[in-house]
Each structure stands twice: as structure tokens, then as C-alpha cells.
Amino acid sequence: MFYKDERLALFIEGSNLYAAAKALGFEIDYKLLRQEFMRRGKLLRVLYYTALLENDEYSPIRPLVDWLNYNGFTMVTKAAKEYTDSQGRRKVKGNMDIELTVDAMELAPRIDHIVLFSGDGDFRPLVESLQRQGVRVSVVSTIRSQPPMISDELRRQADNFIELDELRDVIGRPPREPRADEAEEIE
Q1: Sequence-separated (6 or more) residues with CB below 8 Å from residue 46
Q2: 89-126: per-residue pLDDT in tens?
Q3: How many domains, in total, are found in the chain?
Q4: Which residues, 6 or more positions from 144, have their beta carbon under 8 angstroms from its beta carbon?
Q5: Is there a domain that residue 158 lies in?
Q6: Mean local confidence (pLDDT), 164-169
Q7: Is 156 domain-assigned?
Q8: What is the pLDDT of residue 85?
């Protein structure tokens, strides 16, 4: 699926990868993830997309964002939107689809292979466009969770589907017990 001389870029939709790994019962070791794909080709970029709550004194994702930023990842963040749903529950929304899509389209002329860490079916037209430009696209997600975390349309469109559970031994670590003040990754 990978060629040693091909130029690679990883596009990681943080909330989607977090949810998929959590559904499979492990956490991602991002240092190992980066090393694994450096081994598979000429890794030019690793982009990580996430929304952050700007008004919180402590954001549980802030230490990860800082670590990634200092360790070779390009961080793409924006402020998350906070709202109350119809049942009165506090919800946070921070969709990064447009930012990821624009970056992928801009990098496409310089890349041979893009690895998209997301199962979001909204990315199917992006994958199709990248393929028309001659870029191979692999998608990393899971069909082993209930329900599956990858849309059927995205899986069919991709050149390769990489089952996240099969990367567990290479890029995973057991989940740690969350601290009381930690929250989930933003949707």
C-alpha cells in the first residue's frame, strides 16, 4: 500500500481519531504514529485538526496540542462553539472539515499519498478530487466498533482502507484512567 519514495502527508481529524480509538479501547501514541509513517514513505507533513474551548481555564486537550506542536505536527485549531441543546445539555461543536479540505487541496500538487485519519463521509468528495489530481488516498478508521466509525461511501472511495484496530500494536497504548477534571475531545 505504501512506496518508500512516495511523498506522504497525514491529515488527522483529532475528534474522529480520538473517538475511533476510544471505541476500540486504546489511546494513540502520536510519537509512534509519526515514526510508523516516516518508515512507510517520505513524510512531509503531519497535520492535526482540533477545536479548542477558548474560555476554559483548563482544556484537557491543551497538553496534547502543545506536545504535538513541539514534536513535528502542524496544529490547525480554532475556537469551539458552545451551545445548549433542546434538552438543556451543554454541547460543544468544533467542525474542522473545511480547514482540512482546503489544506489537502493546497498540498495535493506536492504529495503522492495522503493518509486521512477520519471516517467522516463528508470527506468523500475531497478524496475523489484528490484522486483526480493523481494523489493516492488511504483512510484510517474502524469498522470493528459498534456502530462502525467509517462511512461506507468514504471507505469505497479511498484507494486503501486501513483498519485502526490493526495499527493498535504499532501506534497504540492502553487507555489511562481519566482525571476528574478531564473531558472528552470536542465533537
Answers
A1: 9, 10, 12, 34, 37, 72, 73, 74
A2: 887 788 899 999 999 999 999 999 999 999 999 999 99
A3: 1
A4: 24, 163, 165
A5: yes
A6: 97
A7: yes
A8: 85
Range of the domain at 86: 7-173
Residue 61: CATH number of its domain: 3.40.50.1010
Cell numbers representing residue 6 in the block:
512516495
Q: What is the pTM of this model?
A: 0.88
Confidence band (pLDDT; 50, 70, 90) for 187? low
CB neighbours of residue 144 within 10 Å = 14
* Letter string b/e over residues 110-130, b meaning 16 or more CB atoms within 10 A of that residue's CB: ebbbbbbbbbbeebbebbeeb
- Cell 475531497 sits on residue: 126
Strand partners, 10: 46, 115
Asked if residue 133 belongs to a domain, the reply is yes
Which residue in the block uniquely carries the three cell numbers 468523500? 124
As a whole number of angstroms, the distance between CA 70 and CA 185 comes to 20
- Give the pLDDT confidence score for residue 170 in this predicted structure: 95
